[in-house]
Specification:
alpha+beta; 5 strands
Length: about 140
Amino acid sequence: QMVKEESKGKEISNAAAAYHVLKPLFAENDDVEALYCIFLNGQNHVMAIEKMFSGTINYATIFPRELVKRTLVLGASAVLMAHNHPSGNQNPSESDLKITQKIKEAGNLLDIQLLDHIIITPERDLYRSFADEGQL
């Protein structure tokens, strides 16, 4: 559940940096959809990386609540979400877009910044960043 210690304290300031930290986690089991969150402090240094969900993610209303709760418990000021599309399609689904908006709005109320939502595919170096695409 908790992620390798070597990531702790690392600065993550863009999608490429996040991708390189997360890609190996998804590679371990790349036929199953999973969602990881990187929790960051005010200087964008990694406090924790945790798998929040796996299996078919149906973004129930509980998910934003769990994510916000975990962020508050860790005392993080920002979060970066990433999930994989085992199909190789890097385009966000309608529910990917909706949940991203929902989490961004929930975070705004509590001064938690959603830095990015990244979709990772099994193909080498193929990912999509909501922040880079101006979708945040």
